[in-house]
Amino acid sequence: MKAFPMFIRTTGRRVVIVGGGEQAAQKARLLLKTDADLVFIAREPDDEIHDLIDSGRARLEADLSAETLAGAAMVFVATGCVAADEAAHGIAKAAGCIVNVVDRPDLCDMTTPAIVDRDPVVVAIGSEGTAPVLTREIKTKLELMLPQKLGGLAGLAGRLRGSVAKRVARDQHRAFWGWVFKGAPGDAWSRGQEREAARMIKAAIEAGGRPEADTNGRVSLVGAGPGARDLMTLRAVQRLQEADVIFYDRLVDEEVLELARRDARRVFVGKHVGAHAWPQERINAIILAEAKQGHRVVRLKSGDPCVFGRAGEELKTLMDADIPVDIVPGVTAAFATAAAFQQSLTERGTSDTLILTTGTGSEDDPLPDCVRHAQPGSTTAFYMAARQAERIRDALLARGLPQETPVQIGVDVSKPGQALLRCVVGEMPDVIARNGITGTAMILLTWPKASEGLRRDPAEHKERTPLRVAG
Q1: Strand pairing partners for 424?
Q2: Contact 436, 465 (CB under 8 A)
Q3: At what angle do helices 194-207 and 150-167 cross, to 10 degrees?
Q4: CA 324 vs CA 199, 202, 297, 302: distances in Å
Q5: Structural contact between residues 421 and 467, judged by C-beta atoms closer than 8 angstroms
Q6: How confident is the model at residue 276 (pLDDT cuts 50, 70, 90)?
Q7: Considering only CA atoms, which of 411, 356, 403, 416 is closest in space to residue 386?
Q8: Comparing C-alpha atoms, which of 354, 368, 300, 295 is closest to residue 330?
Q9: Tell me, what's the pLDDT at 459?
Q10: Is 406 left (phi over 0), alpha (psi -120 to 50) or beta?
């Protein structure tokens, strides 16, 4: 290393910023996260810096001298002028200050890292000024990994550290804090149950140590989104990284599973239409069994767990057994398909109703009436409907939908093999058959409020195979 990473205390200390323009304001935004006394040295500061001064958060001095810099914890030079920056650097060094000159690594005693802020937990990433783009990329990945609420739990731990020292045996401290951050309190805190987490921690302190074991684990029903792992939510990624065991279906991409802990068990439950290698009852039972062993379980479903994901059956099983469970929503396929086609699912004057339906139902109702709500002014998103295209077309036409109504068909949306097809409703079964579409396809159809608003030339909506393939 050519630079030693460390944290500099700012409480009760001055940090001086030489400059009054955008570069100086950028440094100020970073330093406002601290409790330092900020001092700007500038003749004509911009409006953003003026607001900081007017609010009392910073002070302004017009002239730079060794006296004005004396005793400063740090000096940032950001005048925007090469000559002025070099002059300010010389004065700061003469005053014995450590200095950072913006965009001049050769004049820097220190560099500002990319920061992941979970105050009081702070992660700083640096590259000694050589690769700032890379440090920002690392920062982004850490932002995904570290729960937003982590700092609050760390702060509570700091306030209770004295009580733990008094009441918990010294040789049990490490195990106690491991339980706080990785056990039931940490789980509760990350789910927004701060009071419950604090209650558990304080009760354990009173009892002289952590509970021997949590009798039950937790289950999260997590939406993996349409396929691409960067379309998952931050909370979904956090649940994967907390999980001891993950149950997933065939539609979950392998890249999504790579976000999980390396030591998490991954169990493929093989559910798909027409060939349930794992019946739902068996899935319910094994999820429950894992949770009763105290494990953190993720049931990972493509799209959103609550949209044709049979989440209700799993929820009932867990709730009947008093197993803590939460749902992490995901981007459902209809939304991802509309985004891929760059179109809105609702549009003023055209469609004010969105219908999510499925072409393939349960064993009791394998062929549901999925067009019963379709009418002028609606957009219908058909899930699991490729095999039922002819039946759906006939039902729509029977309801009065013009044959030339445009249809969008998204296949493996957001995945490397994505294909987007356009046609008209009258040709939809032939297009689906010709392209060999039998599995993961989404069909979108908008029935405008005024049928005369439809384009009457079917050639305008002829199939393009594929319209676009996105990697």
Answers
A1: 406
A2: no
A3: 10
A4: 17, 21, 10, 22
A5: yes
A6: low
A7: 411
A8: 300
A9: 42
A10: beta
Q: Tell me the residue length of the chain.
A: 471
Residues 126-144 have pLDDT tens digits of: 988 788 899 999 998 888 7
Q: Distance between CA 308 and CA 334 in Å, rounded?
A: 12
Tokens linked to 398: 């029977």
In angstroms, how far is CA 327 from the centroid of its own chain? 14
- Looking at residue 410, the DSSP 8-state letter turns out to be E
Question: In this structure, what token pair is assigned to residue 113?
Answer: 């890292």
Predicted confidence (pLDDT) per residue in 295-310, tens digit: 889 999 999 999 998 8
Query: Residue 368's CB: how many other CB atoms inside 10 A?
Result: 14
Residue indicated by tokens 């690594």: 105
Q: Per-residue pLDDT averaged across 392-407, rounded? A: 95
Question: Do residues 408 and 421 lie in contact, with contact meaning Cβ atoms separated by under 8 Å?
Answer: yes
> Which residue in the block uniquely carries the two structure tokens 């039950």?
216
385: left (phi over 0), alpha (psi -120 to 50) or beta: alpha
Residue 234 has pLDDT above 70, yes or no: yes
Segment of 213-222, 269-278, 329-338 carrying the highest mean pLDDT: 329-338
Tokens of 436: 């060999």
Q: Burial of 260 by CB count in 10 Å (0-12 exposed, 13-18 middle, 19+ buried)?
A: buried
Spatial CB neighbours of 390, under 8 Å, sequence gap ≥ 6? 429
Q: Which residues are catalytic?
A: 249, 271
CA distance 389 to 94: 79
CA 300 to chain centre: 15
Helix, strand, coil proportions of the chain in percent (round to 5)?
Answer: 40, 20, 40
Q: Which residues of 3-40 are buried (b: 16+ CB within 10 A; e: fewer)?
A: eeeeeeebeeebbbbbbbbebbbbbbeebeebebbbbb
* SS3 state at 379: strand
